Recover the amino acids of this structure.
């Protein structure tokens, strides 16, 4: 009984508590019903044709209109017409629902074979209702069509305004010192002011909604989380990763590259998470307008690039840990450049926010030019200040007697390019080309992001592969023991993997450079463009246009640079770690270079718009040229390819051809360079090495034979002389033990006994040196033993014979 009374008491309290709300709901329902009853009925049959005429009239005016203000008015008219059509279609829905209800009461028409019959009044009523329903469905469909047509027309007007804005921005818009540039500051346009105020009010409403009761605690929580992530989260995560790199990473260069990468990534993650938390704090409600949501999404995407600028700058300078700094940069220069990365990131964020605001609002041309001009002015000034301050610090260090860091050619070229670009930006602003200045400004920052990311990632990939396969680390030892391979093969695998990683990085950087700046591309868009371009359809639809010519030149320059880099990598890093001889390595590098240049030329022609299957005219021209004057060149070229593939001779071989004997130093496309013993060089066409007899003294690692002929008098002891000669040969360190030296009785002449001494040396190039040493030793030993070589007697015998003949002639009467 107590429980029942308690239940009724609670029920009464609930009714008392909810009575005001129920009464308000009832009042609202009554007032809504009264308003619906009092709302005048809309005659769709009259209004829809009027709306269609208005839509056609707006289309006709848009087709020939170029004025920005007029296009804006037509856009507003199209949006208003779309709203009116939507209101009319919504107003017809209750009547259509009423017709459906009436038809449901009448029910479906009976089938003819059912035997049931309806009265004529019911049949007439159903037919009238179905006719009214079909007419109303057509009106609703027409209203929907007018609504969609007006929205599509509004989108076309917006695109037309943007295209006209781009074309007008490309023209000379006036110097920054002229009154036209500063006009938006002193003479604000009513149209822009109204748009800006409307959008600011939307932003204020969004902020107010996030601060309403029920949402206030979540807003505060997200804002506090953003602040903690940006301060404590970034700091302690960086400290933790630094501890990991010092205590957990293997010793070597990987520690520095890993620490630099973690500094950049923690800064990037902190900035992106901070912006995402702020966005969630302000725009997590469903009532937020689409324009505000798009504006905030642009800022969140922009935070990725701002985080990259700040993170790469901190990692590059590394002022907190100078000894761990990855680039060769002095501490004075690093401290002087420390403020510039955050300043640049803040400037990019501010002015990209202004551009996103102008895009969302749809401001006029003058306001857009003013914002772009300020962007270019500050970014160009910052770039010039970086170069000037760096030079000033280096001069100050030189005057103080502190030697500055040694700069490479690439660093000097980068600083020169930065200075020239900053000067070009400021000159463009002075002469009035604001759009060009703005493009150069963001291009400088975009190139800095790409090249900085490539620098750190390439070092990380290279050091990571080297550390992974190094036998000094546990991972390398485990791989070596598991696969049972030599350490040399592990080094080769590390070099190959590092090269593959750098290749992918170079391809991504080249693609990013060809597809605009971060002001026009997001990371997802860059990835989509990469898939589309390298998917096989990026080269098929290209035509010869100026933009393609520029891309072709860039591709040619980048391709030659990459080819030469890979050639140096093969020549200096990879091939020396293999068991190939020097000749084979040089042949492979030369063959790779020749094929690479051919592929680069074909790819450049494709980017220009010349498809590979339509190069018949080039083949025809080459055939005519070959028939007249290129026969020898083509013959030598083909002979060079045969020499590189079959390798009858290779670099380093000692060859003899047409009386020329020397070492092959290089096999080029057309000719081969042979270095003689006097260090002079003979250029031999490749065709001669194919068509003529060539003696390759070092092919197959042939040994050299040292043979010395000596003539002794007839009265010597041959056995003693033989022992002396063999002893001299055996004592010489160049003479091989197998086959052992030998002495043979060559001939017996009137001059004496001819003995031949023979011994083998390791190579053909050792014959002359060994022969000289052996002759010195042999003559010394023979004189020591009192054995003389036979003196030539031919001339003496000849003279005696001539004297006898002369004496006989004198005695004749």
């Amino acid at each position: 009984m107590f429980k029942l009374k308690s239940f009724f008491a609670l029920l009464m309290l609930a009714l008392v508590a909810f009575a005001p709300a129920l009464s308000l709901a009832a009042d609202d329902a009554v007032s809504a019903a009264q308003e619906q009853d009092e709302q005048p009925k809309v005659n769709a049959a009259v209004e829809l044709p009027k709306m269609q005429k208005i839509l056609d009239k707006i289309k006709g005016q848009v087709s020939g209109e170029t004025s920005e203000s007029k296009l804006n008015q037509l856009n507003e008219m199209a949006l208003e017409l779309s709203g009116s059509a939507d209101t009319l279609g919504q107003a017809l829905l209750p009547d259509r629902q009423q017709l459906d209800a009436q038809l449901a009461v009448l029910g479906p028409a009976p089938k003819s074979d059912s035997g049931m019959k309806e009265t004529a009044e019911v049949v007439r009523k159903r037919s009238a209702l179905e006719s009214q329903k079909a007419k109303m469905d057509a009106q609703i469909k027409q209203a929907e069509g007018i609504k969609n047509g007006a929205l599509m027309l509004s989108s076309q007007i917006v695109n037309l305004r943007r295209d006209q804005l781009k074309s007008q921005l490309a023209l000379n818009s006036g110097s920054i010192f002229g009154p036209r540039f500063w006009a938006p500051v002193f003479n604000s346009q009513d149209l822009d002011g109204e748009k800006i105020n409307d959008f600011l009010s939307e932003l204020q409403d969004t902020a107010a909604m996030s601060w309403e009761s029920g949402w206030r605690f979540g807003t505060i929580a997200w804002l506090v989380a953003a602040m903690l992530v940006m301060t404590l989260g970034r700091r302690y995560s960086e400290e933790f990763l630094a501890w990991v790199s010092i205590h957990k990473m293997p010793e070597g260069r990987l520690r520095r590259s890993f620490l630099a990468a973690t500094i950049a990534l923690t800064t990037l993650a902190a900035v992106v998470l901070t912006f995402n938390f702020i966005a969630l704090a302000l725009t997590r409600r469903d009532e937020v307008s689409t324009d505000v949501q798009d504006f905030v999404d642009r800022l969140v995407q922009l935070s990725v690039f701002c985080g990259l600028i700040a993170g790469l700058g901190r990692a590059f300078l590394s002022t907190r840990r100078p000894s761990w700094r990855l680039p060769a940069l002095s501490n004075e220069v690093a401290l002087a450049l420390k403020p510039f990365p955050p300043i640049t990131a803040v400037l990019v964020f501010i002015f990209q926010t202004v551009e996103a605001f102008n895009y969302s609002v749809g401001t006029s041309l003058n306001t857009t030019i003013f914002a772009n001009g300020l962007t270019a002015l500050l970014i160009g000034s910052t770039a010039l200040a970086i170069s000037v301050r760096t030079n000033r610090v280096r001069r100050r260090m030189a005057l103080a007697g502190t030697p500055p860091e040694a700069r490479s050619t690439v660093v000097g070229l980068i600083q020169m390019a930065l200075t020239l670009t900053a000067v070009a930006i400021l000159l463009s602003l002075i002469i009035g080309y604001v759009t060009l200045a703005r493009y150069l400004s963001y291009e400088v920052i975009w190139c800095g992001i790409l090249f900085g990311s490539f620098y750190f990632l390439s070092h990380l990939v290279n050091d990571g592969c080297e550390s992974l396969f190094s036998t000094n680390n546990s991972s390398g030892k485990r791989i070596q023991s598991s696969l049972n391979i030599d350490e040399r093969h592990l080094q080769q695998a590390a070099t190959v993997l590092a090269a593959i990683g750098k290749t992918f990085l170079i391809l991504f950087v080249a693609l990013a450079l060809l597809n605009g700046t971060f002001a026009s591309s997001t990371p997802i868009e860059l990835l989509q463009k990469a898939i589309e371009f390298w998917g096989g359809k990026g080269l098929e639809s290209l035509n010869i246009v100026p933009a393609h010519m520029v891309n072709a030149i860039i591709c040619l320059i980048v391709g030659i640079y990459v080819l030469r880099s890979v050639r140096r990598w093969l020549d200096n890093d990879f091939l020396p770690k293999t068991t190939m001889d020097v000749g084979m390595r040089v042949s492979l590098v030369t063959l790779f270079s020749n094929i690479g240049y051919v592929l680069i030329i074909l790819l450049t022609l494709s980017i220009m718009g010349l498809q590979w299957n339509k190069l018949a005219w080039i083949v025809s021209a080459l055939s005519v040229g070959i028939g007249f004057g290129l026969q020898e060149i083509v013959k030598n070229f083909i002979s060079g390819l045969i020499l590189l593939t079959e390798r009858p001779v290779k670099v380093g071989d000692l060859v003899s051809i047409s009386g020329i004997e020397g070492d092959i130093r290089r096999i080029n496309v057309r000719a081969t360079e042979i270095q003689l013993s006097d260090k002079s060089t003979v250029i031999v066409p490749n065709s001669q090495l194919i068509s003529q007899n060539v003696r390759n003294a070092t092919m197959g690692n042939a040994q050299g034979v040292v043979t010395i002929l000596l003539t002794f008098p007839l009265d010597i002891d041959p056995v003693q002389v033989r022992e002396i000669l063999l002893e001299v040969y055996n004592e010489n360190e160049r003479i091989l033990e197998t086959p052992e030296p030998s002495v043979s009785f060559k001939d017996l002449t009137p001059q004496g006994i001819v003995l031949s001494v023979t011994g083998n040396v390791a190579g053909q190039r050792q014959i002359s040196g060994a022969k000289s040493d052996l002759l010195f030793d042999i003559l010394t030993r023979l004189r020591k033993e009192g054995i003389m070589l036979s003196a030539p007697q031919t001339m003496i015998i000849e003279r005696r014979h001539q004297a006898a003949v002369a004496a006989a002639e004198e005695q004749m009467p």
